[in-house]
Amino acid sequence: MTYSTEQILIAFSFTLFAGLCTGIGSAIALFARKTNYRFLAISLGFSAGVMLYVSFTEILSKTDTTFTGLYGSPLGSWFASASFFLGMIIIGLIDFFVPDRENPHEAPSIDTLSQMKKDSDPEDNEDTVKINGKLMRMGLFAALAIGIHNFPEGIATFFAALQDPALGIPITVAIALHNIPEGISVSVPVYYATGSRRKAFIISFLSGVSEPVGAIIGYLVLSTFFTPAVMGLLFGIVAGIMVYISIDELLPTAREYGKNHEVLYGIVSGMAVMSISLLLFK
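The chain above was modelled as a monomer; its predicted structure follows.
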């Protein structure tokens, strides 16, 4: 299975855009006077809705069709299900082995954001140096964790866009939205530890660069043996990764920022938009 240079560049540009949206989160945290948490909650719910809907209705369907065409039924369906859970196992192992000190892959809560500023103020706390060291460590751990998580997300976004650009667009938007609070979780503690917006933005920005890097490495490694079976496996893994991200990251973080049914509105909106876009592209 071969792809043109144009297809590869389009898929990579999608992945690059999604990864660099970490910088948007950083900019919101560092330069906006007030963060719109309601919008953030709805956006995260929307992203989760897109990921869940497209994973279960489109990507898994493609995986099952591919494996069934190769190995028949029901063996092909067993392979499809196995690839889905393999994706969840892969991202789960990354979660298990990445340092989780100070919950680095979770965006800080509203109370935490305000407390960071208070704790880093020399007039409010005599132990400023110690506290700033803790905040800096929190930011660096968050950057490490997010960088590692973004690596397989980059592969997922890239191959989805490479196989089907119409499918890659909503996935890219969903990944991009979910990267925004990750930028916040890195930049806020680094800024309050150092007082430097520039340093906080750069560290946050670099954590998102691992997404396009993952796409490049994934393509270079896998391009030598692209086959229908490999693509079916990749799509199953992509679906598993996106479902895991939605349940483990997006929904809990959205609930942290949202009130009442705001998260639910976002989820339903994401599923509706995803459904309509898939129908329009058929």
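The chain has a mean pLDDT of 78.
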